[in-house]
Amino acid sequence: MEDKYANGYVFMASSLDGFVARQDNSLDWLMKYGIDENDNSFEEFTKNIDVLVMGSGTFKTVLGFEQWPYKIPVYVLSRTLTQGNVPESLQEQVTIKALNPKDLMQLLYKKGLKKAYIDGGKLVQSFINDSFIKEITLTQIPILIGKGKRLFGTLDKDIDLELINSKPMKFGFIQNHYKVLNT
Predict the structure, then answer these.
(1) Which residue intervals define the domain Bacterial bifunctional deaminase-reductase C-terminal in the entry (predicted)?
(2) In whole angstroms, how far apart are CA 123 and each of 19, 33, 37, 144, 165?
């Protein structure tokens, strides 16, 4: 029997110089812009997503938000965190796993979770390297932060992309939506 896997989708923002967070995972450079009430692109993106997969750094950052922003199941890939690190209020929604991308995507597919939102710089890199990312939506923020955590680091091979659409947004943001061609 052929193995089946969930598909990965990326929806992220980066500084113009390619960083998704500061070294300490801070997003202060992004949060200073406020909210564009007319932008519903994230809500549109998540309508068709079954599960969110994030790394431990992203999980720790999101735990610091005023409220938990997700309504879908969340899997946190970590070799250091355990289920005991998940607040009691999120135990039903958040699962910690120490799996590689292939094993996780196979597990998700078996659970009927076929479209996975992959979030977190290093995590996105590993899922791209393992050919599990089907589409990338990247919003470029008009700021140079000089150093931090890169969205795209070292890759095992060239990744060809096809631009699906591009749109200018409030605050000078540019959102590009790509299909990954060689997965």
Answers:
(1) 10-167
(2) 14, 25, 29, 23, 24
